[in-house]
């Protein structure tokens, strides 16, 4: 440096500049690089001379300058950047991108140079800048007064410069003619991450978080897979925040949903990492080279927006170095080597064993309190809260939206409205205004979009492009938008399968899907599973497939819009009917003993099919479906529901004028009569019994008429007309024997045996039941109930024969529980309670009484002909035990489940067979209402 140059002293502003990517530019231009470098030097020296800056050092592509005035230094940098940007370079790729950094500090030159830490701080400020950017320290910003005309300083926050322990607030020079969008400064921040700040608490997911963390800590690529709204992003961000300290080179979040072109995925990641494109080099190469020697975690969110491009970039990152890990969220897997796919489950809806609330309920409680101004839901709303989360399948987004609805609805009202999931959750949520924190986050993401566009030489995004971005950022504002995001990526076959699967309310197996479509569904089904729109759940017998309820609701809307609803739902009705029929048959196609457990998993599908039959389908098919669950309705305490479905189907028939054969109407009316009796509606019971008789006679079916007439005694008994009921039973049984349809008249046999027991004709009852045993055993629909054994047990109790009573009742209870006849099992538990009381086991008797009554109450079923008998025996037991002891044991029993109560009853010791046993009296009683001999 010439000694004639005057070096400023006191408050000196130091400026460092260099060309970003100069090595790459030199390799690209070869011999043409020297003229570019020379022209760059000429332009800088011309601007420096105009502002009286002192050139201290020029080396290669770098300048070191000193200014006595901070404003002049900023003016020199602004002028230089404008000159560089407007210069006519040989090619666009040859334009040098110069970064500049300024810092002002107290300094005095010695021997023609500055030996001061302020020089090093200025160099570090320059090193933090990007090509085309001018950065300055807080000291320079204070001394630069006035600023160049039209210029301003943008506060970039506090940063830790390499080699310095304190933090420096950096500012970017903003002015016309200068670029504005740049990656974050290249500084050595202690906390290296850009994870979004969450405005709500993170609820639950303790097990999932721990499991996912173990995977991320041991694998280099983990893909969190799940449908929209399952909480993939939130869980990934929460986990990534825990891992910042274990990744010295940072944890970086990139939202691929903001990328509108596959070719910009690598640019978006590079921009977040603070990288700029290098001349003549693919940005993915720059990205891989930067990441190769670093230990960092890259969180790529919503990769299903650009799945192929994301997979390609991830593969390059993983093969380019060993220190990079990728945690991705997507609705479909990448299929790249080394990928570990972790499917995120919905929030748990079942409470843990410690008695706490489930994760789904806990989330709804938290968000509901927020929606109601901090007021937590009333404890009385707990049952409805559980109904809501069950109905929403534990889907976090749906729960969040549901909580918002609770500003105007009670939990009970919301639960009742969830038949229309999308309409209820999305109500009033068209293009909502984001919260300030959300707006700030969206603005940061938009800056990334603008930066990527600038990096590839494009103009800022057009309004149309920004609209695409907004749709991406708002894709979780409504359930409709969430599912549409995935639906639009489906091909025709996969989209059709999704629509048609919406008619099923529960899981289905592969053969069912094949039956539904009528062809091989494997390809479209695989697409739906891969895109997380259908959940595949492996089981021992083969995988089952189901949709989360909000997705099903969306697909059902699409089904109607496509004009396919009639065909799809009729197909579902046919499947339901066929499946019900198969439940009554064995592998060889022959009838087997009816087990109501086989019908339990079909009930949801049958209800959906019945709903269609009653509103838009075929009433005759609906009556056939309802008949397939004939005994199930009553044995599950759902007789009232069964009556309601039948009434709706009668209405549908009247509406359409559909012709239904008399035999089928007779069967429906007979079933309706039995439901009404179980529900305590005795006049309705008699009315439909009479209708059934008229229709059966019209049909001319002898067996059907026998079944209808055999049920006539029930309403007569219920109305207290016992003599008339007995007369009807005897007439029906005699007639059935003459017509050789005695099996169809079993109801009359049972009713007559009960009437005989009631009036003490025990021998006749026993003989009648003995003759009925082989008839019952020959009928698959009846033999699982073991009504003959139940009634023989009652006869034995009346006689005081505890051995016979025990053996008959245990056989009846074991069969009824084994085949799912829960209503009838309650009767047997009552009878075994009487047997235990007669045998001296008073505590067990009280427990069984409590369990039987609690189950009967929950099923809302009437006690029938035995009601007075149970009450009398229970009263006698209370007198023997005393109120307090009886109530304690009764309360214990009422807390037992039906299965636990049955286990307790079946564990009762068999009576002693010795002739002198006190539990086996020698004299037989004759009055069923008398106190048993041992009491």
TrEMBL record:
GO terms for MF: adenylate cyclase activity
Gene3D superfamilies for this protein: Nucleotide cyclase (3.30.70.1230), P-loop containing nucleotide triphosphate hydrolases (3.40.50.300), Tetratricopeptide repeat domain (1.25.40.10)
InterPro entries noted in UniProt: A/G_cyclase, HTH_77, Nucleotide_cyclase, P-loop_NTPase, TPR-like_helical_dom_sf
Pfam families: Guanylate_cyc, HTH_77
Any one Gene Ontology BP term: intracellular signal transduction
CDD domains listed in its UniProt record: CHD
Chain spans, region Disordered: 915-935
Guanylate cyclase domain mapped to chain residues: 13-126
SUPFAM superfamilies tied to this protein: Nucleotide cyclase, P-loop containing nucleoside triphosphate hydrolases, TPR-like
PANTHER family (UniProt xref): HTH-TYPE TRANSCRIPTIONAL REGULATOR RV0890C-RELATED, REGULATOR-RELATED
Protein name from the UniProt record: Adenylate/guanylate cyclase domain-containing protein
Native source organism of the sequence: Micromonospora endolithica
């Amino acid at each position: 440096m010439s000694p004639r140059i005057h070096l400023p002293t006191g408050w000196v502003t130091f400026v460092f500049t260099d060309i970003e990517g100069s090595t790459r530019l030199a390799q690209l231009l070869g011999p043409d690089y020297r003229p570019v470098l020379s022209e760059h030097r000429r332009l800088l020296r011309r601007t420096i001379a105009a502002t009286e800056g002192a050139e201290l050092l020029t080396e290669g592509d770098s300048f070191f300058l000193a200014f006595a005035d901070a404003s002049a230094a900023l003016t020199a940098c602004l002028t230089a950047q404008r000159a560089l940007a407007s210069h006519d370079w040989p090619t666009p790729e040859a334009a040098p991108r110069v970064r500049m950094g300024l810092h002002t500090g107290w300094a005095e030159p010695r021997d023609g140079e500055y030996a001061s830490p302020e020089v090093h701080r200025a160099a570090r400020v320059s090193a933090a800048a990007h090509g085309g950017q001018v950065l300055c320290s807080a000291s320079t910003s204070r001394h630069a007064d006035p600023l160049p005309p039209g210029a301003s300083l943008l506060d970039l926050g506090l940063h830790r410069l390499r080699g310095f322990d304190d933090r420096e607030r950096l500012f970017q020079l903003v002015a016309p003619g200068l670029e504005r969008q740049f990656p974050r400064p290249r500084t050595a921040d202690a906390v290296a991450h850009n994870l979004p700040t969450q405005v709500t608490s993170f609820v639950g997911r303790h097990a999932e978080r721990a499991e996912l963390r173990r995977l991320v800590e041991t694998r280099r690529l983990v893909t969190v897979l799940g449908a929209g709204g399952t909480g993939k992003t939130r869980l990934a961000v929460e986990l990534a925040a825990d891992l910042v300290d274990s990744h010295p080179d940072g944890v970086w979040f990139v939202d691929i949903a903001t990328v509108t072109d596959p070719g910009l995925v690598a640019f978006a990641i590079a921009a977040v990492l603070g990288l700029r494109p290098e001349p003549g080099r693919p940005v993915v190469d720059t990205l891989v080279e930067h990441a190769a020697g670093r230990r960092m975690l890259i969180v790529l969110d919503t990769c299903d927006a650009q799945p192929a491009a994301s997979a390609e970039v991830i593969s390059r990152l993983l093969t380019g170095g060993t220190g990079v890990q990728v945690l991705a969220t997507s609705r479909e897997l990448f299929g790249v080597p080394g990928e570990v796919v972790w499917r995120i489950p919905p929030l748990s809806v079942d409470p843990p064993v410690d008695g706490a609330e489930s994760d789904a309920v806990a989330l709804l409680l938290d968000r509901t309190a927020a929606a109601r101004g901090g007021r937590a839901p009333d404890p009385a709303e707990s049952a409805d809260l559980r109904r809501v989360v069950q109905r929403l399948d534990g889907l976090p987004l749906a729960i969040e939206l549901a909580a918002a609805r609770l500003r105007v609805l009670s939990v009970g009202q919301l639960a009742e409205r969830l038949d229309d999931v999308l309409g209820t959750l999305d109500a009033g949520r068209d293009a909502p205004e984001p919260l300030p924190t959300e707006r700030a986050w969206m603005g940061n993401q938009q800056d990334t979009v603008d930066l990527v566009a600038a990096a590839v030489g494009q103009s800022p995004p057009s309004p149309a492009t920004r609209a695409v971005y907004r749709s991406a950022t708002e894709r979780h504002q409504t359930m409709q938008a969430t599912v549409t995001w995935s639906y639009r990526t489906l091909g025709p076959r996969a989209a059709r399968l999704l629509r048609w699967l919406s008619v099923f309310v529960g899981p289905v197996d592969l053969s069912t899907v094949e039956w539904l479509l009528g062809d091989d569904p494997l390809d479209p089904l695989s697409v739906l599973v891969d895109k997380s729109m259908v959940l595949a759940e492996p089981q021992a017998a083969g995988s089952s497939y189901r949709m989360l309820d909000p997705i099903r609701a969306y697909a059902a809307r699409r089904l109607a819009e496509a004009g396919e609803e009639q065909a799809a739902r009729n197909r579902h009705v046919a499947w339901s009917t066929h499946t019900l029929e198969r439940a009554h048959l064995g592998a060889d196609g022959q009838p087997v003993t009816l087990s109501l457990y086989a019908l339990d998993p079909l009930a949801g599908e049958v209800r959906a099919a019945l709903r269609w039959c009653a509103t838009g389908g075929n009433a005759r098919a609906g009556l056939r479906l309802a008949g397939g669950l004939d005994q199930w309705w009553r044995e599950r305490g759902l007789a009232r529901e069964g009556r309601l479905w039948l009434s709706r189907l009668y209405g549908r028939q009247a509406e359409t004028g559909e012709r239904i054969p008399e035999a089928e109407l007779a069967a429906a009316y007979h079933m309706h009569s039995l439901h009404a009796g179980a529900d305590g509606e005795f006049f309705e019971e008699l009315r439909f019994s009479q209708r059934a008789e008229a229709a059966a006679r019209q049909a001319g079916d002898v067996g059907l008429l026998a079944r209808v007439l055999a049920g006539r005694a029930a309403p007569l008994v219920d109305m207290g007309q016992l003599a008339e009921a007995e007369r009807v039973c005897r007439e029906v049984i005699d007639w059935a024997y003459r017509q050789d349809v005695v099996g169809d008249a079993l109801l009359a046999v049972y009713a007559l045996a009960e009437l005989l027991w009631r009036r003490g004709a025990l021998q006749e009852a026993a003989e009648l039941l003995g003759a009925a045993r082989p008839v019952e055993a020959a009928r698959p629909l009846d033999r699982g109930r073991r009504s003959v054994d139940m009634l023989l047990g009652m006869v034995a109790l009346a006689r005081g024969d505890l051995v016979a009573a025990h053996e008959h009742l245990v056989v009846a209870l074991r069969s009824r529980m084994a085949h799912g006849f829960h209503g009838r099992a309650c009767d047997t538990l009552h009878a075994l309670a009487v047997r235990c009381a007669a045998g001296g086991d008073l505590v067990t008797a009280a427990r069984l009484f409590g369990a039987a009554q609690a189950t009967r109450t929950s099923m809302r079923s009437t006690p029938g002909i035995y009601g007075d008998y149970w009450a009398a025996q229970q009263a006698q037991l209370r007198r023997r035990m005393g109120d307090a002891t009886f109530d304690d044991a009764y309360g214990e029993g009422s807390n037992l489940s039906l299965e636990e109560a049955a286990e307790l009853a079946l564990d009762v010791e068999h009576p002693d067979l010795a002739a002198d046993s006190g539990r086996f009296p020698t004299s037989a009683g004759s009055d069923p209402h008398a106190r048993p001999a041992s009491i």
